[in-house]
Specification:
about 190 residues; alpha+beta; five-stranded antiparallel β-sheet; four-stranded mixed β-sheet; about 25% strand; SHSP domain-containing protein; HSP20-like_chaperone; A-crystallin/Hsp20_dom
Protein backbone atom coordinates (compact mmCIF):
# COMPACT_ATOMS: atom_id res chain seq x y z
CA UNK A 1 0.00 0.00 0.00
CA UNK A 2 1.45 3.37 -0.98
CA UNK A 3 0.40 6.73 0.39
CA UNK A 4 -0.20 9.74 -1.81
CA UNK A 5 3.30 11.04 -1.00
CA UNK A 6 4.89 7.92 -2.52
CA UNK A 7 5.62 6.29 0.81
CA UNK A 8 4.84 2.68 1.54
CA UNK A 9 2.54 2.28 4.54
CA UNK A 10 3.95 -0.41 6.81
CA UNK A 11 1.75 -2.70 8.82
CA UNK A 12 2.33 -2.35 12.54
CA UNK A 13 2.21 -5.87 13.91
CA UNK A 14 0.81 -6.78 17.29
CA UNK A 15 0.79 -10.54 16.82
CA UNK A 16 4.49 -11.31 16.99
CA UNK A 17 4.85 -15.04 16.44
CA UNK A 18 8.59 -15.01 17.00
CA UNK A 19 9.96 -17.97 18.94
CA UNK A 20 10.76 -17.43 22.59
CA UNK A 21 14.22 -16.05 23.14
CA UNK A 22 14.00 -13.12 20.76
CA UNK A 23 16.61 -10.49 21.70
CA UNK A 24 17.64 -12.73 24.63
CA UNK A 25 21.34 -12.33 23.88
CA UNK A 26 22.45 -8.94 25.13
CA UNK A 27 24.75 -6.92 22.91
CA UNK A 28 27.53 -5.95 25.31
CA UNK A 29 29.72 -2.93 24.59
CA UNK A 30 32.99 -4.85 24.14
CA UNK A 31 31.28 -7.38 21.82
CA UNK A 32 29.78 -4.56 19.77
CA UNK A 33 33.10 -2.69 19.45
CA UNK A 34 34.85 -5.89 18.29
CA UNK A 35 32.01 -6.65 15.85
CA UNK A 36 32.00 -3.14 14.36
CA UNK A 37 35.80 -2.87 14.09
CA UNK A 38 35.92 -6.17 12.18
CA UNK A 39 32.94 -5.29 10.02
CA UNK A 40 32.70 -3.76 6.60
CA UNK A 41 30.64 -0.99 5.02
CA UNK A 42 27.31 -2.73 5.69
CA UNK A 43 27.92 -3.06 9.43
CA UNK A 44 29.03 0.57 9.67
CA UNK A 45 26.00 1.76 7.68
CA UNK A 46 23.58 -0.13 9.92
CA UNK A 47 25.24 0.48 13.29
CA UNK A 48 27.17 3.75 12.81
CA UNK A 49 26.78 6.33 15.61
CA UNK A 50 24.26 8.39 13.64
CA UNK A 51 21.99 5.40 12.99
CA UNK A 52 18.75 4.70 14.85
CA UNK A 53 20.17 1.22 15.56
CA UNK A 54 23.52 2.32 16.98
CA UNK A 55 24.12 1.45 20.64
CA UNK A 56 25.91 4.84 20.87
CA UNK A 57 23.09 6.94 19.39
CA UNK A 58 22.30 8.58 22.73
CA UNK A 59 25.89 9.55 23.58
CA UNK A 60 26.69 6.54 25.76
CA UNK A 61 26.32 2.81 25.25
CA UNK A 62 22.77 1.44 25.36
CA UNK A 63 21.84 -2.00 23.96
CA UNK A 64 19.23 -1.31 21.23
CA UNK A 65 17.39 -4.54 22.14
CA UNK A 66 16.54 -3.02 25.54
CA UNK A 67 13.51 -0.73 25.53
CA UNK A 68 14.48 2.96 25.73
CA UNK A 69 12.07 5.71 26.90
CA UNK A 70 12.79 7.91 23.86
CA UNK A 71 10.03 10.49 24.26
CA UNK A 72 11.08 11.27 27.84
CA UNK A 73 14.08 13.07 26.34
CA UNK A 74 14.46 16.03 24.01
CA UNK A 75 16.10 15.13 20.70
CA UNK A 76 18.09 18.38 20.81
CA UNK A 77 19.78 17.28 24.04
CA UNK A 78 20.54 13.62 23.28
CA UNK A 79 21.57 14.25 19.67
CA UNK A 80 23.46 17.53 20.20
CA UNK A 81 26.92 16.13 19.44
CA UNK A 82 25.77 14.35 16.27
CA UNK A 83 23.89 17.42 15.08
CA UNK A 84 26.90 19.65 15.67
CA UNK A 85 28.87 17.37 13.33
CA UNK A 86 26.05 17.29 10.77
CA UNK A 87 25.79 13.50 11.12
CA UNK A 88 22.35 13.01 12.61
CA UNK A 89 19.93 10.73 10.72
CA UNK A 90 17.31 10.45 13.48
CA UNK A 91 14.76 12.81 15.00
CA UNK A 92 11.77 12.53 17.31
CA UNK A 93 9.26 14.97 18.64
CA UNK A 94 5.78 15.27 20.04
CA UNK A 95 2.84 17.50 19.29
CA UNK A 96 -0.48 17.87 21.07
CA UNK A 97 -1.77 15.05 18.86
CA UNK A 98 1.09 12.55 18.48
CA UNK A 99 4.58 11.24 19.12
CA UNK A 100 6.69 11.20 15.95
CA UNK A 101 9.88 9.34 15.05
CA UNK A 102 11.77 10.00 11.80
CA UNK A 103 14.89 8.20 10.69
CA UNK A 104 16.97 7.41 7.65
CA UNK A 105 17.57 3.69 7.32
CA UNK A 106 20.52 2.38 5.30
CA UNK A 107 19.58 0.19 2.35
CA UNK A 108 21.59 -2.93 3.16
CA UNK A 109 20.61 -6.52 2.40
CA UNK A 110 16.90 -7.27 2.42
CA UNK A 111 16.01 -4.12 4.40
CA UNK A 112 12.73 -5.71 5.40
CA UNK A 113 11.77 -3.22 8.09
CA UNK A 114 9.10 -4.42 10.48
CA UNK A 115 7.36 -2.55 13.25
CA UNK A 116 5.84 -4.37 16.22
CA UNK A 117 3.99 -3.18 19.29
CA UNK A 118 3.84 -5.63 22.19
CA UNK A 119 0.45 -6.93 23.26
CA UNK A 120 0.39 -4.54 26.23
CA UNK A 121 1.04 -1.55 23.97
CA UNK A 122 4.03 -0.46 26.03
CA UNK A 123 6.97 -1.17 23.70
CA UNK A 124 7.42 -0.49 20.00
CA UNK A 125 10.07 -2.47 18.15
CA UNK A 126 11.63 -1.53 14.82
CA UNK A 127 13.70 -4.31 13.30
CA UNK A 128 14.93 -5.78 10.05
CA UNK A 129 17.43 -8.22 8.63
CA UNK A 130 20.48 -6.83 6.86
CA UNK A 131 22.59 -9.98 6.46
CA UNK A 132 20.76 -13.02 5.12
CA UNK A 133 23.93 -14.76 3.90
CA UNK A 134 25.00 -16.11 7.28
CA UNK A 135 23.58 -19.30 8.76
CA UNK A 136 20.94 -18.39 11.33
CA UNK A 137 20.43 -19.71 14.85
CA UNK A 138 19.53 -23.34 15.48
CA UNK A 139 15.80 -22.53 15.58
CA UNK A 140 16.09 -20.70 12.24
CA UNK A 141 15.24 -17.27 13.64
CA UNK A 142 17.96 -14.63 13.35
CA UNK A 143 16.60 -12.71 16.36
CA UNK A 144 17.66 -15.38 18.84
CA UNK A 145 21.36 -15.67 19.43
CA UNK A 146 23.81 -13.11 18.10
CA UNK A 147 21.10 -11.08 16.34
CA UNK A 148 23.38 -8.15 15.39
CA UNK A 149 25.22 -10.42 12.93
CA UNK A 150 21.99 -10.74 10.93
CA UNK A 151 19.82 -7.74 11.62
CA UNK A 152 19.08 -4.68 13.68
CA UNK A 153 16.57 -3.59 16.28
CA UNK A 154 15.56 -0.54 18.27
CA UNK A 155 13.02 -1.07 21.03
CA UNK A 156 11.27 2.01 22.40
CA UNK A 157 9.10 2.42 25.48
CA UNK A 158 5.87 4.15 24.54
CA UNK A 159 4.59 6.97 26.77
CA UNK A 160 1.56 6.22 28.97
CA UNK A 161 -0.75 8.36 26.85
CA UNK A 162 0.30 6.76 23.53
CA UNK A 163 -2.35 5.04 21.41
CA UNK A 164 -0.33 2.32 19.64
CA UNK A 165 -3.43 0.71 18.08
CA UNK A 166 -3.85 3.76 15.83
CA UNK A 167 -0.15 4.21 15.01
CA UNK A 168 1.06 4.62 11.45
CA UNK A 169 4.43 3.84 9.89
CA UNK A 170 5.62 4.86 6.44
CA UNK A 171 8.75 3.93 4.48
CA UNK A 172 9.98 5.84 1.43
CA UNK A 173 13.06 4.96 -0.59
CA UNK A 174 15.83 7.33 -1.60
CA UNK A 175 19.18 6.56 -3.23
CA UNK A 176 21.30 4.99 -0.49
CA UNK A 177 18.74 5.25 2.28
CA UNK A 178 15.13 4.60 3.10
CA UNK A 179 13.23 7.08 5.24
CA UNK A 180 11.04 5.78 8.07
CA UNK A 181 8.36 7.88 9.76
CA UNK A 182 6.26 6.58 12.64
CA UNK A 183 3.37 8.49 14.19
CA UNK A 184 1.85 7.33 17.46
CA UNK A 185 -1.27 9.34 18.37
CA UNK A 186 -1.96 10.44 21.91
CA UNK A 187 -5.00 8.86 23.55
CA UNK A 188 -6.67 12.15 24.46
CA UNK A 189 -5.97 13.82 21.13
CA UNK A 190 -9.04 15.22 19.39
CA UNK A 191 -7.38 15.14 15.97
CA UNK A 192 -6.19 11.80 14.65
CA UNK A 193 -4.01 11.91 11.54
Amino acid sequence: MTSSSGSLKLEIHTDDKTPAGKWSVALREEVFRRFLSGGGCSEKAVFGEESLFSPFLFGKYFDPSDAFPLWEFEAEVLLASLRSLGQCRVDWSQTDQAYVLKSDLPVVGKNNVQVYVDVNGKVMEISGQWNSNKKTAANGDWRSGRWWEYGYVRRLELPGDADPKNSEAFLSNKDDYSFLEIKVPKINSKNKF
